[in-house]
Fold these 2 entries.
Entry 1:
Amino acid sequence: QVQLVESGGGLVQAGGSLRLSCAASERIFSINTMGWYRQAPGKQRELVATITSGGSTNYADSVKGRFAISRDNAKNTVYLQMNSLKPEDTAVYSCNVRVATTAIINYWGKGTLVTVSS
């Protein structure tokens, strides 16, 4: 069973930066997209950013211009560079890998907590 392990979360002051990483425990084939989602306390999980196998990216409006997603296909790793962090960015960030073959399979990490203090 593929496992995704996130790292890089922590406590940072508003205006600071963090870089999240998500690595797969084994090689994953037929990846369609890799992405990051977040869930703040009392709120639903929301998309933060995704990146396709071809490198096309998509961002939530709330993070455009501040966050950047990237991936290393050889390492099956996806990154999220977060700059100019705001208190409202506080959430558990989870990575997602979507595989598309004859069916769609979604793999999820357990999440890493990002806390932004004001």
Entry 2:
Amino acid sequence: QVQPVESGGGFVQVGGSLRLSCAASGSIFRGNIMAWYRQAPGKKRELVAHISSGGYIVYAEPVKGRFTISRDNAKNTVYLQMNSLKPEDTAVYYCNAVGMPDSSAYWGQGTQVTVSS
């Protein structure tokens, strides 16, 4: 199976915005709950938000009201609009279907987000 491909990260100042994109194969995307995760240096990967194929959304508490997850089922793509960014949002952001094994064989390279104060 092909790994997801994340893009859109970068370097922004506090309060700035970024929009992340993730292209996944149909076998990963279709019908599955898709999620964004992030991993900061020295920390475990954590869930940021997830969205079902029908559009049901859940956000982690630290990003509620600032981040918006969406998906385009026709393009097998999931997005993460990040507004009002804070230094603690600095991390590598990954996307994947919920429930994927931790093995690196199932995960993409991620996209780095750095928020500077």
